[in-house]
Amino acid sequence: MSKQLVEAIVDMREEEALKLVREMVDCGSEPMAILDEVREAMDLVGKRYDEGIYYLPELVLAGEMMNQINELVKPKLTMTHEIKRRGKVVIGTVEGDIHDIGKNMVTFMLDVNGFEVLDLGVNVPPQKFIDAIREFQPQVIGLSGFLTLAFDAMKDTIVEITNAGLREKVKIMVGGGQVNDQVKAYAGADAYGKSAMMAVNLAAAWIGE
Amino acid sequence: METKLEQTSSDEKLEAAFQRLLSPRDPSGNPLGFKSPEAEANYKASINRIHAALQLKESDRVPVCVFPSFFPLTYSGITLQDAMYDYQKCAAAFKKFILDFKPDLQFGAVAPGPGRFFEILDYKLYAWPGHGVSAAHSYQCLEGEYMKAEEYDLLITDPSFYFRNFYLPRVFGALGGFTMLPPLTGILEIYGVAFNFIPYALPPVQNTYKALFEAGAVALEWAGVMGGMDGELATLGYPNILAGFTKAPFDTIGDTLRGTKGIMLDIFRRPEKLLEAMEAITPIMINMGIASAQATGNPLIFIPLHKGADGFLSDDQFKEFYWPTLRKVMMGLIDAGCVPFPAAEGGYNSRLEVIKDLPRGKTIWMFDQTDLIKAKEVVGDTLCIFGNMPSSMLELGTPQEVKEYTKKLIDVVGKGGGFIMANASFFDHAKPENIKAMIDFTKEYGIYK
User: What is the pTM of this model?
Assistant: First the structure.
């Protein structure tokens, strides 16, 4: 199999990528092989983002292409596509805040870099993070927030995680909008990440390879 | 020669606007009755400081402003919900904020808006107190694809018809009747003219108009209270020179029409349509700003910038999709004697070389996470810089830290003029002593010698 599909996805040629996948499915290509190529392409997209070549438009389109290809391939899948994951991350925008652009970028980048991500969405109360720590058993928590109210909401969330006796089980990173190291210290988090790629680097450092 | 003439005329218009600001009038058209000679002197000194900073000149000292979001409410211990339903309480909170901290300008108390109005029209574009967020929380936009990808041609052909018949009914539950109205441009001559008016007999249309009458009455009552507060603060020496707002065409389409995901995909899937649509709404965005200047007599046009920040678009995408129409909007406003006041939310570090392509001394830029030392170097001889005390420092720092940060900005960015000390971004929470430190220290240390 050539790397035409990988190239089409990485170069943001959506129509061509979808056409190739349809052809591959019609010719009886192994669905797993197609998904492996998609994964390889996403990895390259992530790298280009990290290098400052790609930005939000490319991440959004790459995500869309991935979803569409999954839909095309799904009916042919005989077993679930198990890929080796590096670790688990729970992410969400803290209570009172419903902004999600930055959080979605982080989720995407963590996912394409091999982490299993549970995205709790926006306006997430502390208890939901606590429930997720218990059930999903992540090593890393990502708290996102855009507004100044998020400073206190991040702090409250971390206090409640501590009170629930779970603080030692997880590393916590914060980011978004007006968040910086000063907010990290105030909230009692372990690290602040300015970009989606920094979130990936933090998670990788904490979890190990 | 023609350009020279136009240039002069826009300069004259701007000059006239500032002269008008120096001779303020009350709502009956009489000279404004200041509460004291000191109030009058303060008012005029503030106007002169801002005018000089805009022109990249020094005045008696560095001007200092605070353009908050809902901080005046939290400072007065009231919730956003309180402010949205009790206009007097809202106005009192913003007034107290100004009188306690004494900045050079005030920006009005209109941000909370009238709650009843949103209820009557069933505004769905935002989560707001009691409708998706709690009483004390800010309203926040509920992003969606309120305009569908295949509707670009409708928008391009007739933006107002598209807004009325498609967009508005999707974001206001009570405006469903608008979907039944024909374009106004069909009303031409006696033959057949009456057909255009048949929909107004239909109950859904009549219900929409009833809601509009009711909402309009609420808005008028609210605006009266807000205008009263502006007038009172003016007599006490605190001018509001803000006229209204407009937007970068990319944000107009990306924020509330197509949404972030929609517009990012459009860059690849239908770039020509996106560019065409931005061109189509550019004159509308210009007129929106000019109309607010004409209605208020104020020159400052706020332009919140969202999706062009560092990290959102590549340099090439910024230059192709974001900047050209934003620049046209600003040039249109400048030609009309207005002062564009863009707020570059997030970082604009990678955009500085691009945005300096504007006439010298005609725009005020509110910078957030942009490095102002670098900004002074690159755009300091073109744009007036407004900012950039971080929200985190105002909320979590100490007065000493605030003073040190302020000092650094005054020393470097304030040098030679063209700088307004201010907050970096919109905030709801801060330590009052930090705001006081920023303002008092600027007044004391920021004197031009």
Answer: 0.93
